[in-house]
Design brief:
With about 150 residues, the chain is an alpha+beta fold. It is about 35% helix and about 20% strand. It has a single domain, classed as SMI1/KNR4-like (3-Layer(aba) Sandwich), CATH 3.40.1580. It has 5 helices and 7 strands.
């Protein structure tokens, strides 16, 4: 179980997931967007379990179950960011306090500068990204407790 999942179970009022997509629809969605080969397994697993959603007061983890009117649809948001100059190698999966993407050429997670789309920081996993960004910002404020990083 990931720290993100544990935090969501401990404080469910802080996390609103869109809901687990049906397996066949999820696989078809991945294949139609060619993301099955491009996204790391931990992000795919997170999307399959939650569909994406909102965390804390300002954070959106884009996903396959997000909708366009609310700006939470990962495909539409990526299309919009590419029209603003975001390189094709990035798949944006988070907006809010910062802008986060998968770097498909490196296979890792990155924090992007929202104006230039340059990489500010890199993370080796979705867990590292969450712990070193969102949890670092919001953890103490919401009483999520002290955390010791787990290493695989």
């Amino acid at each position: 179980m990931s720290v993100l999942t544990e935090d969501a179970q401990r404080r469910p009022e802080l996390f609103r997931w869109y809901g687990r997509p049906e397996d066949a629809k999820f696989r078809a969605w991945l294949e139609s967007n060619r993301w099955l080969e491009q996204c790391p397994p931990d992000l795919l697993k997170f999307w399959q379990e939650t569909g994406g959603g909102d965390a804390f007061e300002t954070e959106t983890i884009l996903g396959p179950s997000g909708d366009m009117p609310s700006g939470d649809d990962v495909v539409a948001v990526n299309r919009a960011m590419r029209s603003r100059g975001m390189p094709e190698r990035f798949i944006l999966y988070h907006t809010g306090l910062l802008m986060s993407a998968v770097d498909t050429t490196q296979g890792d997670y990155v924090e992007l500068d929202p104006a230039t789309f340059s990489v500010r920081r890199r993370f080796r996993s979705l867990e590292d990204w969450y712990v070193l960004t969102l949890r670092k910002e919001y953890g103490q404020r919401y009483g999520l407790g002290t955390l010791h990083m787990r290493r695989a």
